[in-house]
Amino acid sequence: MLALSLAVKLSSPGPILFKQKRVGKNCKFFTIYKFRSMYTEAPKDTPTHMLKNPQAFITPVGRFLRKFSLDELPQLINILKGQITLVGPRPALWNQDDLVAEREKYNVNSLTPGLTGLAQVKGRDELPIPVKAKYDAEYREKMSPLLDIKILFKTFFAVFKSDGVVEGGTGALETKEDES
Q1: Can you give the pLDDT at residue 53?
Q2: Are strands 29-35 and 114-116 parallel, antiparallel or unpaired?
Q3: Are 23 and 94 contacting, i.e. CB atoms less than 8 angstroms apart?
Q4: From CA 5, how far away is CA 14, in angstroms rounded?
Q5: Rounded distance between C-alpha atoms, residue 151 and residue 114, angstroms
Q6: Contact 180, 118 (CB under 8 A)
Q7: SS3 (DSSP) at 100
Q8: What is the pLDDT of residues 82-119, one digit of tens each?
Q9: Mean pLDDT to the nearest integer, 39-65
């Protein structure tokens, strides 16, 4: 993490960590930590999929960090603080009302968010919001230590292969084959 911190700092001016308000368990807000992967001029509270040209805002080091999800490592702080767990639905941005509302239909907002989740291994950025919410609901229904282990295992391989990483998330996939 020290090497990544140094790379972020040397690659572009600005802080090493990016802090952002996110939706936690029972829709309570918390601050999430990530390695900064975008230039400081990038909109702070806009989901990447809503940016007109997301690539223009991402630093060269940021591309690498995001490709392999290394920008997420500082969320270990959030785990230690009890704000997120290893596995659960990814925390929505504070203003991502569409995702929060879709999850509300399935009572997913009652869960503690996670560093990774079922939607992450089923398509990640490629999934439209209603499909992500359905995978989050499926996780809620089937929660178990064994499922968490399966998701962690699949996350490792998805990250290694950069599966589902689409800057600006196209939402191109309607569903992905059930592999769980």
Answers
A1: 85
A2: unpaired
A3: yes
A4: 12
A5: 11
A6: yes
A7: helix
A8: 999 999 999 999 999 999 999 999 999 999 999 999 99
A9: 87
- Reading the block at residue 91, the tokens are 């925390």
CA gap 131, 177 in Å, rounded? 12
- Phi/psi region, residue 39 (left: phi>0; alpha: psi -120 to 50; beta: rest), is beta
Confidence check: pLDDT of 147 > 60: yes
pLDDT at 166: 55
Residue 12 banded pLDDT, cuts 50, 70, 90:
very high
Distance CA 9, CA 113 (A): 28
Give Cα 70 to chain centroid, integer Å. 11
Give the C-alpha separation, 14 to 17, whole Å.
Answer: 9
Q: What is the DSSP string of 70-83?
A: GGGTTHHHHHHTTS
Q: Minimal CA–CA distance to 176: which of 158, 152, 149, 159?
A: 158
Contact 58, 50 (CB under 8 A): no
CB 118 within 8 A of CB 154: no
Token pair, residue 84, equals: 């997120």
Q: Reply yes or no on whether the pLDDT at 163 is more than 70.
A: no
How much is the pLDDT for 48? 76
Tokens of 117: 């989740």
Q: What angle do CA 76, 81, 82 make, to 5 degrees?
A: 95
